[in-house]
């Protein structure tokens, strides 16, 4: 079977961003918020699940989330590489029985995250500094599922990244984000609209180091999945 990266976009305003910006391997982006369609497990060589404005437990409003959590469980059980970003990390936690809490450990903006001792030795974070810049936009946060290993923390949000098994990771921060997405998210409510230019300025000031970290992280993930990819890192 041809190696294929599958990306789940849960929200029209939360696109893959830098993940697909210079991607040199075959991939497909699914939009279940439009049609409910998700790939079959047998089709997936690696799976990335993106963020979204909804919560991990909003199955009633977004029925595709139930099917997505089932897909995540089978993906993890099969040992297929999985990377969950923000909501995608929360869905990983929820799919494996951990709590995802609303309005807790909220963060918005360009903020520093620190790797734990386990994080510095983790394959996903190979070549990434112990302290690195991230862009955050979340009002919900995850507990660690049984067997989950904490890989990164911040002063405001102690659960920034975790691993389950050897090939599944959940992140709270947004390594994929681009300026256009930040502007879209700022338009979601009046309080963030007033902070748009401040948020963009801080993000732009950290763009070089942020971009290098994001490229390294995605490069590491694809390497773990056995997908050859060269993107100039």
Would you report the number of β strands?
A: 9
- Number of domains as seen in the coordinates: 1
Specify the structural class. Answer: alpha/beta
CATH class: Alpha Beta
In DSSP terms (H or I, runs of 4 or more residues), the helix count works out at 9
Distance between the termini: 28 Å
- Rg over C-alpha atoms, rounded to the nearest angstrom: 16 Å
Short description:
The protein has nine helices and nine strands. Helices cover 32% and strands 24% of the residues.
Task: Tell me about this structure.
This protein is α/β, with parallel strands linked by helices. It has a single domain, classed as Class I glutamine amidotransferase (GATase) domain (Rossmann fold, 3-Layer(aba) Sandwich). It is 32% helix and 24% strand. Strand 8 and strand 9 form a beta hairpin. The two termini are 28 Å apart. The model has no long low-confidence stretch (mean pLDDT 93).
């Amino acid at each position: 079977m041809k190696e294929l990266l599958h990306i789940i976009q849960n929200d029209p305003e939360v696109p893959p961003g830098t993940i697909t910006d210079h991607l040199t391997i075959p991939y497909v982006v699914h939009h279940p918020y439009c049609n409910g369609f998700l790939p079959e497990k047998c089709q997936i060589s690696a799976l990335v699940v993106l963020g979204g404005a909804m919560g991990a437990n909003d199955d009633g409003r977004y029925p595709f989330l139930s099917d997505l959590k089932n897909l995540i469980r089978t993906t993890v059980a099969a040992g297929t590489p999985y990377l969950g970003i923000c909501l995608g990390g929360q869905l990983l936690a929820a799919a494996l029985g951990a709590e995802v809490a609303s309005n807790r450990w909220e963060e918005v903006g360009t903020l520093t995250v620190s790797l734990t001792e386990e994080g510095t030795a983790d394959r996903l974070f190979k070549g990434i500094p112990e302290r690195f810049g991230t862009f955050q936009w979340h009002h919900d946060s995850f507990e660690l599922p049984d067997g989950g290993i904490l890989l990164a923390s911040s002063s405001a949000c102690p659960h920034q990244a975790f691993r389950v098994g050897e090939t599944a990771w959940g992140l709270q921060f947004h390594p994929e984000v681009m300026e256009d997405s930040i502007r879209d998210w700022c338009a979601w409510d009046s309080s963030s609209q007033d902070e748009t230019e401040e948020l963009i300025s801080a993000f732009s000031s950290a763009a070089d180091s942020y971009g290098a970290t994001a490229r390294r992280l995605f490069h590491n993930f694809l390497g773990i999945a056995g997908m050859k990819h060269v993107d100039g890192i």
